[in-house]
Design brief:
The structure holds two protein chains of two kinds. By secondary structure, chain A is mainly alpha-helical. Chain A has 15 helices and two strands. By secondary structure, chain B is mainly alpha-helical. The chains are: A mainly alpha, B mainly alpha. Chains A and B meet through helix 1, helix 3, helix 5, helix 6 and helix 7 of A and helix 1, helix 3, helix 4, helix 6 and helix 7 of B.
Amino acid sequence: MTTDLRPSRNGPPQPTSAQTHRAPRRTWRARLARLDVKGAPYAFISPFYIVFLIFGAFPLVYTLWVSLHQWELASGTRKFIGLDNFDYLLTDEGFWHATVNTLGIFVISTVPQLLIALFVANALNRRMRLPTMFRIGMVAPLVTSTAAVAIVFTQMFDTNWGLINWAIGLFGVDPIEWSSSRGWSWAAIAIMVDWRWTGYNALIYLAAMQAIPRDLYEAAAIDGASRIRQFWQITVPLLRPTILFTVIISTIGGLQLFTEPVLFSVATPNKMDGGPLHQFQTITMYMYDNAFGHDRYGYGAAVAWALFVLIIVFSLINFLAVRRTGGAK
Amino acid sequence: MTTLLAGPGSRRPDPKHAAPAGRFRGLWNASPLTYLTLIVALALSVFPIYWMIIVATRTNSVVADVPPPMLPGGNGAGNVGRLFDNPDAYFAKGLLNSMIASSAVTISTVFFASLAGFAFAKLRFRGKNALLLTIIATMMIPVQMGIIPLYMIMVKLGWENQLQAVIVPFLVTGFGVFMMRQYADQAVPDELIEAARVDGCTTFGIYWRVVLPALRPAAGVLGLFTFMQTWNEFMWPLAVLTPDNPTVQLSINNLANAYFKDYTLMFAGTTVAVLPLLVVFIIFGRQIIGGIMEGAVKA
């Protein structure tokens, strides 16, 4: 550190004396140093842009181009057909069926997930013994692999041998046909999703809750507000930006749901069908099946764009909804 | 819910009689019902993982047992042996592929993201703000959007069914760059960089000797998340790799396709596939939690 300070203090004289002694080398060095200062930042950020341009931006734009074609890799067909794919998409029952499935699973997974996460975060925010143990336990599901857990849950949801039907049987409930009914299969998949993500959202809420000044609660307690009222009238309103964040993240992730339903379709010939009646086929599965399963890359690309539009539309709707409910208060 | 309802219950009288400073302590203490809620939540979180281990260590008759067994059995080694001998799972290969791909992506992401993050946080150059904005914009694009053209690129490069297909597109992410920029902004004092500059350090020298050591905590968290994410990747490997050159997720998918009645074999597969992540989690659990909560604060 001391050596660092010295040259900067009597800096001006030194370079001139050095320059007079060995001028050519100095300028060469100075030029190199200037190149370093000017060029290094661009060199440092360029790896990201190279990777992104080739594998991120280009595919995105190219998807649009592909979607304007009848494009098959196996047969080598590549025919420009304009907007025909999108035209077909609008009346394609398979697509809309998958869209309803995706939205259905999204709603019945996200709403309870975020509510439970709020309550769990509120509980974690208390003073307690072993706080770290509880927090680590809550995020344990996140560090398991999605595919592995989907297999475990699929077995647990088995109609005849599953643990869950056995457990509800203890209460006298008849076995549920989890995979064959549309509603129950959505519920089963929603439970898999929630099992994984509730703890994560709870930790995000907890972080935001810890930033709320405690005297707000103390003042409310003096005024006689119960804990329930404190929760709904202090915690939840102040958490609105965080809730918005989690809603958007859940929308983006939820509408792209893929791994869980794929692995939930046990014993069907085509796993991308989402059950024999396509009862839990999501949009992403439909896209995948068209492109990679049936060599309809052009139409698959059109479905990908439709999904992208849906994600943007729903993120906006959710954004406005959360803002609106907050603004009313 | 129950916690909230019963919250102000039994402990309330205590703080009332306490000194003024401790007057509101009761407001924050966990009530028995808080504990009950958390213990139930904890049990639900951990049980499926525990159940996976139980089945993986037993024999296939386990599924017919009433009531189901609640303790691990002694057949774990046998099941894992069958797993690695299985001709359709290519399990050893999948495990090795996943190790290589996840490690390569992690090292590369941490290196390039911290390099770019340092540049964005601490160096002066033209177009910096606009470039940073484009990075934030890229974070919002869902990866799956481009999966079809990405596959076409791989076909053109002759990379279908090659391991680099699941590595190269993910060498550095916008999220990583942004995260490292946010951290470098606060964690590296400008004076330190100036001092190193005056000392004759090249810009890369400054990064290597001054910035990278200061970024270590954030780099660790980024590395953990990147490793877990790459390890878990399912859709893209499924599209671009074939079942005989799988990642570990595809290996267990192979098992689920062909052996869906052989639960102990499948569960041995899922257990081994999850094990590296659980080991990472046990060692770095605190950092992972810190990472999630930090990220939330920044967002």
